[in-house]
């Protein structure tokens, strides 16, 4: 079926005089999502405590006590470098899309969205679109490509870092190669508007079903056109690459300081793979999946549980949970500023 025919299959919608506003999530669904997350978090904490108890609390606390205050600051600093580089990438993409927002504003949106990292599939991070709509009047449909290209850039960067680390270290991670290939393919397709539109057209032609979904994919492909020129995607992926490399390096330094005999490239490969594996589980923030993968892969490197357990807990605290804390601090500021700007625009 031709592209015009696919787009015409959508029923006519009445023209609205105001931007589209996302439908609020019903309260029961929000409660269910929160219950699932806190259930996963509880299971994770119980599992970590049980594993720590099996190795001996004293040994676990001893490993944690090896770290000094300056070492913790180094770990947090490398995480901040990651967030800063990816925030700069968000500003790059937003500017290329045509949003006339300052670097400070885009950084506020990006970092404030971290507060919603623990929502299932991280869909809560779409709150950034709401802030942009309030401050610019742009509807969510018009700014949604930012999320798509941001995720695709992360996939590409993480796949490249992990692939290079595995190649240099000679480390074999079961399932690592397929994950790298899938991440690169997904990132390549999503960041190639014409290819994405072709996939949607062929997908509908083969299945003969879901015309509305394939039509939406085609529209998303057209909305990604602004990012396909000028090397914007390449620049954004380079920023993300160095950002994720910084967090992988933090994991290596942590293991080194705690006495684990693991090379830098191996540690980086384990960290990136575990982060991707946690994301594939669909659990909020990858909670549970990332930790399990990290501990299992460290065990294959002959790192004892008494060391891998506290190392995993600390690196997750200084990466995922540190980002969430930053988000929780900035979130109310972003809400307040966006409402103020909206009022100024509506009542000049």
Automatic annotation (TrEMBL):
Keywords for this protein: Cell membrane, Membrane, Transmembrane, Transmembrane helix
Protein's membrane topology: Multi-pass membrane protein
Keyword Transmembrane helix among UniProt keywords: yes
Assigned GO CC terms: plasma membrane
Annotated stretches, region: Disordered: 1-23
Cell compartment(s), UniProt: Cell membrane
Keyword Membrane: yes
Subcellular location, principal: membrane
Segments passing through the bilayer: 35-55, 67-85, 179-200, 226-245, 313-334
Name listed for the protein in its UniProt record: Flippase-like domain-containing protein
Species this chain originates from: Pacificibacter marinus
């Amino acid at each position: 079926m031709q592209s015009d025919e696919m787009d015409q299959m959508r029923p006519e919608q009445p023209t609205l005089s105001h931007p589209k506003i996302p439908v609020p999530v019903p309260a029961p669904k929000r409660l269910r999502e929160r219950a699932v997350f806190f259930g996963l978090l509880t299971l994770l904490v119980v599992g970590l405590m049980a594993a720590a108890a099996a190795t001996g609390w004293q040994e676990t606390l001893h490993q944690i006590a090896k770290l000094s205050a300056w070492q913790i600051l180094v770990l947090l600093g490398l995480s901040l470098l990651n967030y800063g580089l990816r925030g700069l990438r968000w500003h790059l993409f937003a500017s290329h899309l045509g949003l006339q927002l300052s670097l400070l504003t885009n950084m506020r949106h990006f970092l404030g969205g971290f507060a919603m990292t623990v929502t299932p599939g991280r869909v809560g991070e779409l709150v950034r679109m709401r802030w942009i709509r309030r401050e610019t009047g742009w509807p969510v449909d018009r700014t949604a490509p930012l999320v798509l290209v941001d995720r695709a850039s992360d996939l590409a960067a993480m796949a490249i870092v992990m692939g290079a680390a595995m190649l240099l270290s000679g480390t074999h991670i079961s399932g690592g190669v397929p994950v790298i290939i899938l991440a690169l393919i997904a990132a390549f397709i999503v960041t190639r508007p014409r290819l994405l539109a072709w996939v949607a057209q062929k997908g509908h032609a083969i299945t003969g079903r879901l015309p509305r979904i394939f039509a939406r994919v085609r529209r998303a492909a057209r909305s990604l056109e602004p990012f396909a020129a000028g090397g914007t995607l390449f620049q954004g992926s380079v920023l993300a690459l160095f950002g994720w490399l910084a967090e992988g390096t933090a994991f290596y330094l942590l293991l080194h300081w705690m006495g684990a005999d693991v090379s830098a490239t191996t540690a980086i490969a384990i960290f990136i793979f575990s982060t991707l594996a946690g994301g594939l589980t669909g659990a909020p923030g990858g909670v549970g999946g990332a930790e399990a993968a990290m501990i299992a892969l460290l065990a294959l490197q002959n790192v004892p549980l008494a060391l891998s357990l506290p190392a995993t807990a600390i690196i997750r605290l200084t990466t995922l949970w540190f980002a969430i804390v930053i988000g929780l601090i900035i979130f109310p500021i972003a809400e307040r500023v966006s409402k103020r700007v909206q009022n100024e625009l509506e009542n000049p």
